[in-house]
C-alpha cells in the first residue's frame, strides 16, 4: 500500500489545480490589504489613490500580467496602501474596503475600471453641493458624495447592501486609519502611484516602468 501511495502521490499532486492567489487578500497590521500569497518571494507595495488617473491606468494596464499571472501564481504579492488625496478618494476607499478581504480586490478593480465615469460626477457633485455640505457632519458628507459620484452603485454591484455601505461610510475610526496610512508613507512617496519592491523604492509610476523591475527581481 505504501509503495502504491508513493507511486500515485506525484500524479495526484500534478493533477491538483494550482491555487489562484489573485483571489486571496489579507488585512495587514497597518490596515492595508495584501493581495496574493503572503509568502511570495517578490513583494510589491503600491501607494495609490482612487482619484488619481495614473493609478487608474496602472490598475487597468497591469491587470492581465500582474494580477492575471504573477500574483495568481503566488510569485508576487501586492500590498495596496491608500494615499488619500481628497474626500472623493476617501469615500471610494471606504466603499472598496467595505467588501472585506474576499471582495476588496474585485471592488477596487471595479472602482478603477470605472474611474472615467464616476470621477467627473464626483467633481460636478462636489462643486454643486459645496455650500450645502458645509452644514453636514463628516460621515454624512462622505455618504452623500459617494451617492452623488456613483460609488454606492459600484458597491451595490459588488453585492453590498445599503445598510452595509452606510455603516462603512459612517466608520470614522476606519477613515482615521486611512488618513494615518497616508501620513505614514515614506519620503519616497511624493505622488501616486508610488511603489516599493521588496522594501525599496522603484522609480516610475507606470506599468511599463514597474514590469521590468518585477522581472529583474525574479517575477516572470
TrEMBL record:
Residues 32-207 form the Thioredoxin-like fold domain. It comes from the Bacteria. It holds the Pfam family Thioredoxin_4. Keywords: Signal. Residues 1-20 form the signal peptide. This is Thioredoxin. It comes from Sphingomonas gellani.
Amino acid at each position: 500500500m505504501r509503495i502504491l501511495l508513493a507511486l500515485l502521490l506525484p500524479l495526484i499532486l500534478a493533477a491538483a489545480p494550482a491555487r489562484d492567489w489573485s483571489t486571496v487578500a489579507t488585512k495587514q497590521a497597518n490596515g492595508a490589504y495584501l493581495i496574493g500569497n503572503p509568502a511570495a518571494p517578490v513583494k510589491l507595495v503600491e501607494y495609490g489613490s482612487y482619484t488619481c488617473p495614473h493609478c487608474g491606468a496602472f490598475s487597468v494596464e497591469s491587470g492581465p500580467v500582474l494580477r492575471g499571472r504573477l500574483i495568481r501564481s503566488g510569485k508576487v504579492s501586492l500590498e495596496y496602501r491608500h494615499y488619500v488625496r481628497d474626500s472623493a478618494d476617501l469615500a471610494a476607499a471606504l466603499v472598496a474596503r467595505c467588501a472585506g478581504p474576499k471582495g476588496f480586490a474585485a471592488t477596487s478593480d471595479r472602482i478603477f475600471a470605472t474611474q472615467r465615469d464616476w470621477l467627473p460626477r464626483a467633481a460636478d457633485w462636489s462643486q454643486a453641493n459645496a455650500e450645502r455640505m458645509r452644514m453636514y457632519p463628516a460621515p454624512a458628507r462622505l455618504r452623500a458624495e459617494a451617492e452623488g459620484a456613483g460609488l454606492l452603485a459600484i458597491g451595490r454591484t459588488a453585492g453590498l447592501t445599503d445598510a452595509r455601505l452606510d455603516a462603512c461610510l459612517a466608520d470614522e475610526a476606519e477613515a482615521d486609519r486611512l488618513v494615518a496610512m497616508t501620513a505614514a508613507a515614506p519620503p519616497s512617496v511624493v505622488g501616486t502611484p508610488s511603489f516599493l519592491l521588496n522594501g525599496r523604492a522603484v522609480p516610475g509610476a507606470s506599468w511599463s516602468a514597474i514590469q521590468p523591475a518585477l522581472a529583474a527581481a525574479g517575477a516572470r
